[in-house]
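Design review, sub-item: ligand-bound model
Attendees: FS, YL, KQ
YL presented the inputs for the 4UU complex:
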Amino acid sequence: MSIIKSPHPEITIPDDVSVVDHVTRDFDTYGDRVALIDGPTGRSYTFSQLKKLIRVCGSALTRLGFKQHDVFAIYSPNLPEFAIIFFGVIGIGGTVTTVNPLYTADELAHQLEMSGASYVITIGMFADKAKQAMDKCEKVKDVYVFGEAEGCTPFSSLLRDDGSAFPADLQINPREDVAVLPYSSGTTGLPKGVMLTHYNLVANMEQMRQDGSVEAVANPSLLGLLPFFHIYGMSVILAGSLLVGANVVILPKFDQELFLKCIQDYKVTHVHLVPPIALFLAKHPMVDKYDFSNVQELFCGAAPMGKELSDAVRSRLKVPSIRQGFGMTETSPVTHVVKVGESKPGSVGVPIGNTEMKAIIVLFPTDVKVVEIESGKLLGEGEDGELCVRGPQVMKGYLNNPEATANTIKDGWLHTGDIGHYDSEYNFYVVDRLKELIKYKGYQVPPAELEALLLSDPRVQDAAVIGVPDLEAGELPKAYIVKKADSDVTEKDIKDFIAEKVAPYKKLRFVEFTDQIPKSASGKILRRVLKQKEVERQKK
Ligand code: 4UU
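KQ shared the predicted structure:
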């Protein structure tokens, strides 16, 4: 019945260093080793080249008039050059907002507008969407493109610079300045800009470094498959691996054959996964044709991976370690990881380590308390409740949204909106989600966003969206619709209406017409009532 501290010893987290200075601090030592490799083409950059290009890019951006605290949007799949612009912007004190490249032009425009971005970079394939979005946002000055595309400025123009305009007197305040601004819907409502400071990211990198699994290997190589626009790919894979001198084998999307071939041919040692890819590894016949002997660890997060799936992957691939972690965009992202050397299938692990650096600053260790949902009372071992976290990785807040921030961080505790419990060794188990968020293959699908779109359809009287359990995707978005009295709208009409407006992973997979949406006295949708109905239906 108490607050739980991380079982790891406390570490010192520097609060006087920026993300780029921290990540690149040993790049001169890593020198000519390969830092980034494009999986499909083999195009690569060494640590020395990357360090130089980050500076060159920062200098070129400065010449353009891009200043400290300005916002640059990256709307791109994973590519080695993603890292150059990402660290180039952050290195001169700018903020990067990352956008899912599958977003429609409208979804992109919305994020550009909300984040106040002045530039956006994309790839040729998405250049049209980026230009359409720019036309809707006054603040956006230009669209950059990796490669070339009509009406866009080539990214290569930012690399033709001698680096001399890099700001010499740059003062970054790591505890205040926002390095990245990914979007998350949090526990409720529409996506919000998550302000992660330089300190938040440095802290999480150091907390993960304490884990030691990557550095324990002679030539560590991580697979950069999970998207860099999402905090997992951005912080843990891209920044975290470069910091410790591991290379990243980058894949722009999940292609079964290429995925397996790259792991084998580039001798990848650490593979970060989400549950649907773990399922592929457990089941697909193609997997047997490839050599996994260099893989030291498979690491899964972003959605629940149960014991059965974990055991199935382990027994098939015979990798030395398979572990799970837990995190959120709002926590930079990692808060829990299974201890190195331990096998705890089904558990998301113990709270990761952290430190109190200065006694005068209220900097708590990564404690986790389990709060009973209704009362706020602390719960004990084995009792399910809402998980609340505090630590140096907890975000500064949601951009321009003090209300949502106050509802999420209370007395210094971040309320995850997840339900779980812990065992006698402080291994945590996440068993349910209190918040309304739907996760499709680890991607966030905010029901409130789909509901707002549905209500904008004149044929719809009322709507509620929930996630229904699915073996492969984790959850699939389903809408309950109350039709307008005179409407003969069909399920297909509703699905099409949404599909036109949102990225493919947010599409409604099921639509059911109903007479009434269950609501509380205050008018809130009772999602658990609808979810319960689904669970019972699936049992039949
Ligand atoms: C059950 O998904 C993430 C971050 C994931 C992450 C990153 C690095 C996990 C491990 C790691 O090392 O962020 P968001 O913001 O997209 O989604 C956060 C939500 C959580 O609140 C929870 O509902 O995603 C769900 N979630 C999980 N659920 C994340 N990880 C897990 C997990 N089991 N392991």
